[in-house]
């Protein structure tokens, strides 16, 4: 008797497969190999690269090429890593990866450091398998990296790109301390269209950058070749294998903001989240992404923020479902590409990206006009942090962030706008919002966060609306509006203070 033909699996079944069929991780590994088993033969788009140093000539016969990993903490799907390997292969040199760990960074807590270190541990293991020594250098890059380059006669340095002022300063400091004959380049491995290429100026909003980005996608939204096993052995290996536990114990960070258990650190776990998004939530993304009670979001922001998952990879995978979930795929590309790259654009071209001075004149003026308006409530930072306001929805959102490290995207807007309403000045509101966001959100300290707070409080990338007290012409949001959009009480019950009273 002929066997019954096996039913073809739907895209969602394939995407959510974790047994039997090919998983997203396996499919991704195969796609990379199809694009190129080595970056040497791959047509690398040099527009992703910009020269930081004055010298551009690689020294001959040096001790190797180094990739200084910073924002993009992953091996595969990383254009900066790939470019460094390409240089090393062209010169037949060893490749070394360095990560400079500062034991204390702004107000980062163990929630952030724990996630980062565990992700880096996975990076180190993957590097080992590929015969690429991974060096965890403890200290500021300007102190430890040039020393490493000198000691090991490194002939060229590649790093990734962040538009934020501290990492930009790190790059500049390293540049000044490098030997003159070591070329130093930066590769935008975070954005699909390199930030400096997408636009040469601060864009007014999504409507002015959207077309610029979409026009460039055909040349940049390509498959990645694989970072391959490196054939050129180094004369030296990593000084010793990293003692990750000792490293974790030595951090001088606030341990009162604990790690969260829903988000497993590392690229492998991140790609599994992408798989579950495609298999289970993508179909609801267009219709339900503004409903905090529904599981419709990707949840990928922590892995994107630490560079453990490449946004480009996520988009490549998500767009395969365009035939089935067109609106959701388009909405995801709008958020993950247009809005996210707009945030990088803002921070790169606006030095005061986290200050009221960084806002447009209309927004600064309208906020100033209303500074003296009477507030119905004024809360201290401590009251806000503890989620002790009169508004149960705001408190619930705050508690979600404090305890889970990720507030729902829709509520982030409401949350920040209420801080404007309940503090004495817009400057204070912005300061408090950024402080709380960066302290508790696992994806905090990100261009998206500064822009999110600036959008909510200072009208960045937005337009003027009907004038009202305190907000002036800044877009207003209220509890009644939220009630019209979703079951507010359900959310309030889920994050009720009683649930966290222990
Ligand atoms: C006040 C405020 C603070 C915010 N703070 C942060 C922050 O610290 N870090 C952060 O990554 N995002 C921040 N955002 C933007 C957005 O809310 C989050 O990126 C999103 O909620 C993350 O969840 P997700 O990955 O499930 O998003 P999804 O909805 O699944 O979106 C996918 C990706 O698109 C990008 N994205 C989504 N919405 C936006 C947006 N409005 N602007 C820019 N990029 C976006 C993110 O990279 C996100 O991971 C903030 C927004 C506001 C209004």
TrEMBL record:
Residues 63-195 form the Photolyase/cryptochrome alpha/beta domain. Its EC number is 4.1.99.3. Residues 1-22 are annotated as: Disordered. This is Deoxyribodipyrimidine photo-lyase. Involved in repair of UV radiation-induced DNA damage. Catalyzes the light-dependent monomerization (300-600 nm) of cyclobutyl pyrimidine dimers (in cis-syn configuration), which are formed between adjacent bases on the same DNA strand upon exposure to ultraviolet radiation. Keywords: Chromophore, DNA damage, DNA repair, DNA-binding, FAD, Flavoprotein, Lyase. One of its GO terms (biological process) is photoreactive repair. The keyword DNA repair applies. It comes from Geotrypetes seraphini (Gaboon caecilian). GO terms for molecular function: deoxyribodipyrimidine photo-lyase activity; DNA binding. The gene is LOC117366627.
